[in-house]
Amino acid sequence: MRIVVTGAAGFVGSHVCDNLLARGDEVVGLDNLCTGTLENIEHLSSHAGFRFIHHDVTEPVQVSGHIDAVMHLASPASPKDYLRMPIETMRVGSLGTLHTLALAEANGARYLLASTSEVYGDPQVHPQPEGYWGHVNPLGPRGVYDEAKRFAEALTMAHHRSHGVDVCISRTFNTYGPRMRPNDGRVVSTFITQAMRGMPLTVYGDGTQTRSFCYVDDQVRGIVDLLDSTHVGAVNIGNPDEFTILELADAVLEITGSTSQICFEPLPVDDPAQRRPDISLAQSALRWNPEIDLRRGLALSVAWFRTQLVGPHLRDRP
Ligand code: NAD
Ligand code: UDP
């Protein structure tokens, strides 16, 4: 297959490119590098099946030659990034989705939208099945990301219903692993870098809020399985093992062997209190299950973060 991947230079997108190329697909990667980096795809620069186009997908997207599938992953994803780029986040969720859907439609290609567990907001149903409509504050700071993705989902389904585009939507739950930017502000990358630098781990609130962390290889396999399926609509892709943020901090300290302390900082506005995917649909429709538990995934991530050390220091990526 010949597949367009937007957000190809990002954390998840670069792993998606690796996965597709490894099985023999051709990949055209698009990215404007606002939160991604060419370092993530440097190893693909001489790959015959890979082409990179520096492009902002809020502008119309044209790719020459036939395309079999479009995977729209472009969007700031870390709260630190989307709070710094609120309008850009809403533009890529709306215009970016519109333009990539048009590309899929013009080619008769299957379309995958990378959505998020944030469409459930601060959920009042636990764990969250795809049928739950969510609990989102559109006026709060996180609304820019949550509502952009909710709009993107609605736009995707509208193109299916009105124009017959073959669509699917992955609702990704907190994913971590190699190639996260050490300074991206997400909890796993932040705790690992703080532990490696001997700095206090910054737990927001009292640390009793929960998340369910999925290792990137499991996530990418789930997204690609969804693309390969005939499923139309949204599927949760995440690891249902749920941890408090304090439990995560303890696991990171143990795995890094760090003696860092834990310090407490204010909880961000509208920070969801709990989050865990109901993955029954992924299990039945895709035969997908996560395979890498938190401790193994953290160990693999720490090993990668160690390769980013320059002397005793961890360098920040661009
Ligand atoms: P990331 O920030 O590492 O990657 C996003 C990529 O999109 C970056 O390379 C960025 O430069 C690119 N991009 C952003 N706006 C663009 C635009 N207008 N035009 C072209 N490129 C643009 O984030 P990630 O964690 O890899 O997330 C990838 C996708 O998965 C996002 O859509 C995100 O919403 C979704 N997602 C990720 C997680 C997670 O835990 N990692 C959770 C839920 C959803
Ligand atoms: N968090 C934290 N310390 C940090 C960064 C994040 O305690 O340095 C918390 C954050 O408040 C949230 C959870 O960790 O409750 C996950 O945050 P992240 O930004 O990784 O993802 P989110 O699920 O909020 O999108």
UniProtKB/TrEMBL annotation:
Keyword vocabulary terms for this entry: Decarboxylase, Lyase, NAD
The protein's Enzyme Commission number: 4.1.1.35
InterPro entries in the record: Epimerase_deHydtase (IPR001509), NAD(P)-bd_dom_sf (IPR036291), UXS-like (IPR044516)
Broad enzyme group: lyase
Superkingdom assignment: Bacteria
Residue ranges occupied by any NAD-dependent epimerase/dehydratase domain in the UniProt entry: 3-238
Cofactor(s) demanded: NAD(+)
GO molecular function, one term: UDP-glucuronate decarboxylase activity
UniProt protein name: UDP-glucuronic acid decarboxylase family protein
Organism from which the protein derives: Rhodococcus daqingensis
